[in-house]
Amino acid sequence: MTILVTGATGTIGSAVVDELLRAGHRVRALTRNAAAADLPDQVEVVEGDLTEPRSVEVALRGVTALHLLSATGDDHVPLATGPRLVELARQAGVRRVTVLTTGADGPVEQAVRASDLEWTILLPIDVMANALGWAESVRTGGVVREPYGGRLTASVDIADFAAVVATVLVDGGHAGKSYRVTGPEALTPADKVRAIGAAVGRELDFVELTDEQARELWRAEGWPEEGIDFMLTMWATVPPTVGVVTSVVKEVTGRSPRTFAEWAGEHARLFA
């Protein structure tokens, strides 16, 4: 069984690769630059670009299961090539596909739903690793400054999300399902800062910023204006569903998802 992972050099994709390798499976990775791919030696690295479907044909040969991105780039632009990619996968004999979705019903999501593939769409509501963006501020000042401090998110450990992807790809049994994948609890930013403080053994502060204070801080850090606008708009309109905990990790993998406190303990050295 050869499993193709797209986005294999990204944070989530590399975790999926590691999970599949630990389970003893043959992994092929698609990347736009094979020379720059920092992947384990056991991985077969193939160059290709999801925005140019013809470049992916070689990578799909002999593949039984596929982990597919629905969007690319830092701005998460939906892949307009979704229908062609799905058709190429079907022609190559791929039977099972997981889709990493951003939550939008884009061309990839629509194409897999219309296909005869065993598809499963997976959405990580938020990943705990996003808190690593606080590491420098915690190390140098013992403080985290952000707007919208009351927002609740049911963040998931990337390792748990990767385990869900790997289990679905290998074992099947989830065809035609769309899952929101979360951790075991919904926390505010201040809750997470307290957990990090407990992990590093010192009290940390959380300061809630106004929109204008956040703009000033992020400008000073070199953020582009469009990035600032995007983040403020996103956080101002966070739907209540991002704080709703699901049992997908336990149901799919059979193990309980890690708590944020456990994640913080495992990564404490990065905040110390």
Note the topology:
Layout: E1 2-6, H1 11-22, E2 26-31, E3 44-47, H2 57-60, E4 63-69, E5 71-72, E6 77-78, H3 82-92, E7 96-100, H4 107-114, E8 118-124, H5 135-141, E9 143-147, H6 158-171, E10 177-181, H7 189-200, E11 205-209, H8 211-220, H9 225-236, H10 248-253, H11 260-266
Parallel strand pairs: 1-2, 1-4, 2-3, 4-7, 7-8, 8-10, 9-11
Antiparallel strand pairs: 5-6
InterPro entries: Ergot_Alk_Oxidoreductase, NAD(P)-bd_dom, NAD(P)-bd_dom_sf
Domain NAD(P)-binding: 7-166
Essential attributes:
272 residues; alpha/beta; Rossmann fold; UDP-galactose 4-epimerase, domain 1; 2 domains; 7-stranded parallel β-sheet; two-stranded antiparallel ribbon; 11 helices; 38% helix
Report the CATH topology name of the largest domain: Rossmann fold
In whole angstroms, the N-to-C terminal distance is 42 Å
CATH class of the largest domain: Alpha Beta
Largest sheet strand order? 3-2-1-4-7-8-10
Bin the helical content: 25-40%
Low-confidence stretches: none
Let me know the average pLDDT. Answer: 95
Structural class: alpha/beta
Shape: globular
Number of self-contained structural domains: 2
Which quaternary structure do these chains form? single chain
Describe this structure in words.
InterPro entries: Ergot_Alk_Oxidoreductase, NAD(P)-bd_dom, NAD(P)-bd_dom_sf. With 272 residues, the chain is an alpha/beta fold. It folds into two domains: 2-124, 3-Layer(aba) Sandwich (Rossmann fold), CATH 3.40.50; 130-153 and 185-245 and 258-270, UDP-galactose 4-epimerase, domain 1 (Alpha-Beta Complex), CATH 3.90.25.10. It is 38% helix and 19% strand. The protein has eleven helices and eleven strands. It has helices at 11-22, 57-60, 82-92, 107-114, 135-141, 158-171, 189-200, 211-220, 225-236, 248-253, 260-266, and strands at 2-6, 26-31, 44-47, 63-69, 71-72, 77-78, 96-100, 118-124, 143-147, 177-181, 205-209. The strands form three sheets. A seven-stranded parallel sheet has the order 3-2-1-4-7-8-10, with helices on both faces. A two-stranded antiparallel sheet has the order 5-6. Strand 7 (96-100), helix 4 (107-114) and strand 8 (118-124) form a beta-alpha-beta unit. Helix 1 (11-22) packs across helix 6 (158-171), helix 3 (82-92) packs parallel to helix 4 and helix 7 (189-200) crosses helix 11 (260-266). It is globular. The model has no long low-confidence stretch (mean pLDDT 95).
